[in-house]
Design a protein that fits this description.
alpha+beta, Archaeosine Trna-guanine Transglycosylase, Chain: A, domain 4, 2 domains, 21% strand
Length: 228
């Protein structure tokens, strides 16, 4: 069977390993590299590669107390991804690429493994965008201006093709910009793609005037060909 997005989702069992992270939010239609070195997550990658290769990456909730908990809470809405590339290091660790597939609601389930697992349900997005072509033009122009004024070198040309969906364009830029993780999580949780894009535009417009207070930019990772 040809490996496509629809095939992956149609044959999905409904549960995935959970890879909760602080200060990071994965979006659909983006690709993110990870270095996996913690033993439980090394085991997780091995199990994923022997199975469906799916993993869900929720944002950990910052707690005032009990920071040493083995089961820290996480946001119940996250993105389920597919481990699209794996490279094992000589130390027995892994470099992986995770392609964000779909936004999901998580219900944690009992796990017999050393890592956590969750039953995940895909969530519906309202994808209508008014004046989409104009918003695409503004997003690219503002992002280029921010990168230029911040003196950041980036391969922005990977986003400029007409075959790049507006949703992908917005999500890749949100991922790259130094937006606090909690704010990215709020944007992910929005059901309206148009509202998410409008918030991104507002952030970039204000960012042009506050570059000195912005943090570091994430690299733009080429998106997976399934989306093109």
């Amino acid at each position: 069977m040809e490996l496509t997005l629809n095939n992956l989702l149609s044959s999905f069992s409904g549960t995935t390993p959970l890879f909760p992270l602080p200060d990071f939010v994965l979006f659909p239609q983006t690709v993110q590299p990870f270095r996996i070195f913690e033993p439980r997550y090394v085991e997780m990658v091995k199990d994923c590669m022997a199975g469906e290769r799916m993993v869900t990456i929720p944002l950990l909730i910052e707690a005032e107390d009990d920071r040493s908990s083995e089961q820290p809470p996480f946001r119940p809405i996250a993105t389920m991804g597919h481990i699209s590339e794996v490279q094992e290091t000589k130390e027995g660790q892994y470099n992986i690429l995770v392609t964000g597939l779909v936004k999901v609601q998580i219900e944690e389930v009992e796990s017999e493994k050393v890592y956590r697992r969750g039953a995940v349900t895909p969530l519906t997005e309202f994808e209508h965008i008014s004046d989409a072509a104009h918003k695409r033009e503004i997003i690219l122009r503002l992002f280029e201006s921010i990168l230029e004024r911040a003196d950041v070198t980036s391969n922005i040309e990977i986003l400029q093709g007409e075959n790049v969906p507006l949703q992908m364009l917005a999500h890749v830029i949100i991922s790259a910009l130094p937006i606090p993780a909690e704010e990215k999580q709020k944007m992910l949780e929005l059901q309206s793609l148009e509202l998410r894009i409008d918030i991104l535009l507002n952030f970039m417009e204000s960012g042009l005037h506050t570059l000195d207070t912005m943090g570091s930019f994430e690299s733009l990772v080429p998106t997976h060909p399934w989306w093109n």
